[in-house]
Specification:
- This protein is of the alpha/beta class.
- The chain is about 35% helix and about 20% strand.
- A hairpin with a 7-residue loop joins strand 16 and strand 17.
- The protein is elongated, with a radius of gyration of 42 Å.
- GO terms for molecular function: catalytic activity; phosphopantetheine binding.
């Protein structure tokens, strides 16, 4: 079986596409980029696309798209700089002789060596076994069903660090001899630990794997993948934790030639239930674009629309502009843009607080910005109840009477009243009470036995807007008089035939026969609500005097 297939040099045509008559050139280019390359046919064009996009009279885009099996991110940067050099040489009329290293130049004159048999690789194998023999916890940010994690469809959200934060980060890294990627890796461990309540976390990292001089400026796919496993102790000092992360990165980097497939095989040999080894990854990508003389250019990298990991962080540092960008690539089946925005805020807040207070312990670092603090501490803790207006007692009765007007509402010895009849008696008495100053929570005593007159009196007082005070005819006269004076009742409604106590206010007898002759061609205006006073009920006081308890409609 062939281990390496070399295609001899062959010319490749560069297609030109005219976009001068459309204002969606960038959108069309992104759509073209999202269309996956085919790796079935053995040809260069199946794994790469080179197009010249003519957009304006003074603007031309050179569009390139490569499958990952032949090109990595470093190669894209190298290719871009080579194109800039070629263009400048054309402008100056210089020779375009090929001088860049290729796979063929690396292989020419060398014998084939089994890399796995070298002593240095045996040390790397020992490193891999050391990291895989210990207990390994597969980490997933979201515990979703496996079927949701089988889709690689993804979205990208990009943010550019503000100049003040970017300057603070560079100053912190320079003063403490720490790399930018170590700072962000440590902050990501803390962020994940806070959001998931986990401490043992593995994050995938990518290394250029270009240790030999021959590979430094060679186009190809050399990147290696290895997880870095750390424990985020909340009591650890942040600066010490960052240095531990950096130390572990250097240790892993020395073994970046260790193939990822061997690492996975070793893991699954001891941990049979492992599925996806790396759920989250972070990549540092310095983009060193060369300065051009005689023309202006811009670079842009389009997102493919897929990611193998649940969540991938790309830290891009532009050496030409000094800008630092963060790309958040997330699987669409597992995350929403809102949740990713929240993760962005948490991560950057941790970074911002960490560079300001590097000697603080991890648990003291804030991850919530001021907006989220206000939302959690204020909006989430509003004590006012959002409830519909509470109904009134007589309002409930009126609605019931409208729904079931002919059903029995009140049964008593010798008769029965339907809801419609009871409502009619109530409205007649309420209309009669209104001119006597009953509205506005005025106190009205109701002296009656259990009878239709008692029910009509209570509902009429409420409908008129007042509050009733129930008075038991069995009470002594002194007790009844005390209750009427204590509540400052303005009116007393009494059932005919009962002994009425001396009362400074007006006393009215209520009987169904008297109300039958009354007419009620109108209804009283209802001013009461759920917070209005409904009644005052007196209990026997411990001092010998009754004590009144005020009850609102919504409390009854």
């Amino acid at each position: 079986e062939d281990l390496l297939v070399i295609w001899m040099h062959r010319p490749i045509s560069l297609e030109t596409v005219d976009f001068t008559h459309t204002d969606q050139a960038e959108r069309d280019a992104m759509d073209l980029h999202a269309d996956p390359c085919s790796v079935q046919a053995v040809s260069f064009t199946s794994v790469s696309i080179l197009l010249c996009l003519s957009c304006q009279t003074n603007e031309v885009w050179l569009y390139s798209k490569f499958h990952h099996i032949i090109m990595d991110g470093i190669s894209l940067n190298l290719l871009g700089n080579q194109l800039i050099d070629i263009y400048q040489k054309i402008m100056r009329g210089e020779d375009l002789a090929e001088h860049h290293r290729t796979f063929l130049s690396q292989l020419h004159g060398k014998r084939t060596v089994n890399t796995y048999s070298l002593p240095v690789f045996k040390k790397t194998v020992h490193f891999g076994l050391k990291h895989t023999r210990t207990r390994w916890n597969t980490f997933h940010w979201r515990n979703e069903p496996l079927i949701l994690r089988q889709s690689t469809a993804a979205s990208r959200d990009t943010i550019t660090l503000s100049p003040p934060l970017e300057q603070s980060i560079r100053r912190f890294c320079k003063e403490n001899y720490i790399s930018i990627i170590s700072l962000f890796m440590a902050s990501l461990y803390i962020c994940i630990s806070r959001l998931t309540a986990k401490r043992d976390i593995a994050i995938g990292t990518y290394y250029g794997n270009r240790g030999s001089k021959a590979r430094k400026d060679m186009l190809g796919m050399f990147v290696s993948t290895l997880p870095i496993r750390m424990t985020a102790d909340p009591d650890a000092e942040f600066l010490s934790f960052v240095r531990s992360v950096g130390k572990e990165q250097l240790s892993v980097m020395r073994h970046q030639k260790y193939p990822y497939n061997l690492f996975v095989n070793e893991l699954r040999h001891d941990h049979h239930d492992l599925q996806n080894i790396i759920g989250i990854s972070m990549q540092y990508q310095p983009l060193a674009w060369r300065q051009a003389e005689g023309f202006d250019y811009e670079t842009a990298m389009f997102f493919s629309g897929h990611t193998a990991n649940e969540l991938s962080f790309q830290l891009q540092e532009r050496t030409d502009t000094g800008l630092i960008e963060l790309n958040f690539d997330y699987q669409s089946a597992l995350f929403t843009k809102t949740s990713i925005k929240r993760i962005q805020t948490h991560l950057l807040t941790i970074v911002e607080n960490a560079v300001r207070n590097p000697n603080s312990c991890i648990r003291q670092l804030d991850m919530a910005d001021e907006n989220e603090k206000k939302r959690v501490l204020t909006a989430f803790n509003r004590t006012e109840a959002v409830e519909p207006p509470a109904p009134t007692l007589h309002g409930l009765f009126t609605r019931r009477a409208a729904l079931s007007p002919h059903r029995p509402a009140l049964r008593f010895p010798g008769g029965m009243l339907t809801y419609a009849e009871l409502d009619q008696y109530t409205r007649r008495l309420a209309v009669w009470l209104a001119p006597k100053g009953v509205p506005n929570e005025s106190m009205v005593g109701v002296l009656a036995e259990r009878s239709p007159e008692m029910v009509v009196s209570v509902l009429a007082v409420l409908k008129a807007g007042g509050a009733y005070v129930p008075l038991d005819p069995e009470y002594p006269e002194d007790r009844l008089r005390y209750m009427l004076n204590d509540c400052a009742a303005c009116l007393l409604l009494a059932q005919p035939g009962l002994s009425v106590p001396d009362f400074s206010g007006e006393t009215l007898e209520v009987s169904l026969s008297a109300l039958t002759s009354e007419t009620a061609d109108r209804d009283v205006s209802e001013e009461a609500d759920g917070g209005s006073l409904a009644y005052i009920i007196y209990t026997s006081g411990s001092t010998g005097q009754p004590k009144g308890v005020a009850v609102e409609h919504r409390q009854a």
